[in-house]
Amino acid sequence: MTGPLIAEPPAPAGQAPARPLTAIDRAMTDYLQHMGVERGLAVNTLSAYRRDLARYATHLANTGRERPAEITRHDVTGFVQALSDGSDGGSALGIRSAARTVVAVRGLHKFWALEGVTPTDPASDVHPPMPGKRLPKAISVGEVTRILEAVGTDTATGLRDRALLEFLYSTGARISEAVGLDVDDITLHAGQAEDTGPAIVRLFGKGSKERLVPLGSFGARALDAYLVRGRPLLSAKGKGTPALFLNARGGRISRQSAWTILKTAAEKANITKDVSPHTLRHSFATHLLEGGADVRVVQELLGHASVTTTQVYTLVTADTLREIYAAAHPRALG
After folding, report:
1. How far is CA 264 from each of CA 37, 181, 255, 284, 307, rounded to the nearest angstrom?
2. Which residues carry out catalysis (predicted)?
3. Which residue, 277, 240, 322, is CA-closest to 144?
4. What are the tens digits of pLDDT across the range 82-99?
5. CA pair distance 99, 130, nearest whole angstrom
6. Residue 56, class by beta-carbon neighbours within 10 Å (0-12 exposed, 13-18 middle, 19+ buried)?
7. pLDDT the model gives residue 188
8. Are the C-beta atoms of residues 246 and 231 closer than 8 Å to each other?
9. How much is the average pLDDT of 138-150?
10. pLDDT value of position 299
11. Where are the domains of the chain?
């Protein structure tokens, strides 16, 4: 690999000549040679680095910087801003492209600092732009009810489908947790006549972490009907698996099959939104919080290791809070 890698292309006839190379350009060339020869970067990756750093070099030249040691943190953050709004004359980049460019810039400055080209690393605490936090998708209670009631229960598979969907919404279980259940993981009857509390299900989450989750009466009745009238018929077609939810051949149902069951029910209910098994989990959490449940209780039910993960659902319920406030406070609206 020879020749400068950051050099500007010759200017077309009639246009201003390309800017002269600076010490920054030459130091960037050294870095790219290091990445290509010593680090063995793929050709396409190296080409992307070269393109990203060429834009950075132009940005620095436009701010009057000529030597690596002159570059400040302000120069780096200014470039990051230019990537998103195109204020340097280049194209405004999306989150992923901008993040890739910032990674290239951070690697460059780290290399310069390690090699003694610069006394410090001005990009050490400049981070790539992150995509905005996507709120979980939840559907309304009415939409959930329509989906559940769209499933017919006059066949063994219909009883299974209703039980599965009722279970997902009643417990907030991940689809992998639901299809991984065995019959022995379910306790529909506590054994005490005076105990009228909800049934209990044992779930195994990420890292095989076990948790006990209540199962509401609708889910318990649907499961009971499936276990009594549906599962025996499906089990007779298989080899005696202990799995709770069985496919038509008597084996454990797959996650893809469970997704198809929900999709079919949503179509029957005329739900046009994109609904997946995880949508029922999101709806479970959102509806609990809207009903007044404490976020730490929801954290336990969902099996989140940190309450921070659960708190994203409070952003969803903020819309409901605003609506209630606007309707109830005497001076909310002028």
Report:
1. 54, 22, 14, 20, 34
2. 174, 206, 278, 281, 304, 313 (o-(3'-phospho-dna)-tyrosine intermediate)
3. 277
4. 998 888 888 888 888 888
5. 8
6. buried
7. 72
8. yes
9. 92
10. 81
11. 23-115, 141-328
What is the set of active-site residues? Answer: 174, 206, 278, 281, 304, 313
At 225, list the tokens. 């009907």
Q: Which CATH superfamily is domain 141-328 in?
A: Intergrase catalytic core (1.10.443.10)
% of the chain with per-residue pLDDT over 70: 80
Query: Global pTM?
Result: 0.56
Cα–Cα dist 217/63, whole Å: 68
pLDDT tens digits for 152-202? 999 999 999 999 999 999 888 989 899 999 998 887 764 444 455 677 888
